[in-house]
Amino acid sequence: MSRSKMTEWTYDYFNMSFPINAVVHVEINRPAKLNAWIEPMWLELAKIFNRISHDPEIRAVLLTGAGERAFSAGLDIQAASQGGILSESAQDNARKANALRRHILEFQSCISALEKCEKPIISLLHGSSYGLAIDLTLATDIRLCTSRSPPTTFCVKEVDIGIAADIGTLSRLPKAVGNLSWVKDIALTARPFGWEEALRVGLVSAAYPSKKEGIEAGLKLASAIAEKSPVAVMGTKKLINYSRDHSVEDGLEFTAVWNSAMVQTSDVKNAMTAGMQKRKPIFEKL
């Protein structure tokens, strides 16, 4: 991507790069604070992924955290207590509750922007991956982690600060791993757990010895996805997420309606022709 184009992708709390054709690498960039989250970060996150969703040049995303120590230590508790969601308020209880409800819903929608993004997102966790790190990556499509340099340590930390996790973990984690007993174990105790356990229960699909190797693997995976029909990829993500949250019958009906339009894409003809000619198909931008 040209230098002039790159300047259009400059953000305060995220590094953006385009290492492979049609793939964007989004890096959380607050390493001095272990990539702990403050309100401007999640607002910026939503802007980035809403933009990625509609950008025809992008077909897949890799999400990582800057620095060697942490993907993210979660919510910046100090900042939150000084003017954020945990700060004191002089409002009466009803008004304070309504303000908090609005704030939580806005925060949730910013994280959900990743799940709603039309482009598949691969996340690579490393080092400390606490609280909001799990909320965030559960909204991505494929999760990877590191096993050694540094090993990934996960933790649903919220009960240790006196709250129930409210940005997505308690809604998405049971569906991601399919083991309610294990989810309650780690959520109720806030105990840290390692990459082996995360891999065993299906929270991540692969672990790599180092962050560097994890990034290389994530980019390779993103590149493979980016070569597919963008219409088919968008539809596959949409249909899997819909079916996860609905009955089989509802999922089949939604799939029929979706594909009644999307199967008319020229990508089907291109793929079949390329297959017969034993060449790699080239698809138009979305």
From TrEMBL:
<keyword id="KW-0443">Lipid metabolism</keyword>
<comment type="pathway">
    <text>Lipid metabolism; fatty acid beta-oxidation.</text>
</comment>
<dbReference type="InterPro" id="IPR029045">
    <property type="entry name" value="ClpP/crotonase-like_dom_sf"/>
</dbReference>
<keyword id="KW-0576">Peroxisome</keyword>
<protein>
    <submittedName>
        <fullName>ClpP/crotonase</fullName>
    </submittedName>
</protein>
<dbReference type="GO" id="GO:0006635">
    <property type="term" value="P:fatty acid beta-oxidation"/>
</dbReference>
<dbReference type="InterPro" id="IPR014748">
    <property type="entry name" value="Enoyl-CoA_hydra_C"/>
</dbReference>
<dbReference type="Pfam" id="PF00378">
    <property type="entry name" value="ECH_1"/>
</dbReference>
<dbReference type="GO" id="GO:0005777">
    <property type="term" value="C:peroxisome"/>
</dbReference>
<keyword id="KW-0007">Acetylation</keyword>
<keyword id="KW-0276">Fatty acid metabolism</keyword>
<dbReference type="InterPro" id="IPR045002">
    <property type="entry name" value="Ech1-like"/>
</dbReference>
<dbReference type="InterPro" id="IPR001753">
    <property type="entry name" value="Enoyl-CoA_hydra/iso"/>
</dbReference>
<dbReference type="GO" id="GO:0005739">
    <property type="term" value="C:mitochondrion"/>
</dbReference>
<keyword id="KW-0843">Virulence</keyword>
<comment type="similarity">
    <text>Belongs to the enoyl-CoA hydratase/isomerase family.</text>
</comment>
<dbReference type="GO" id="GO:0051750">
    <property type="term" value="F:delta(3,5)-delta(2,4)-dienoyl-CoA isomerase activity"/>
</dbReference>
<keyword id="KW-0413">Isomerase</keyword>
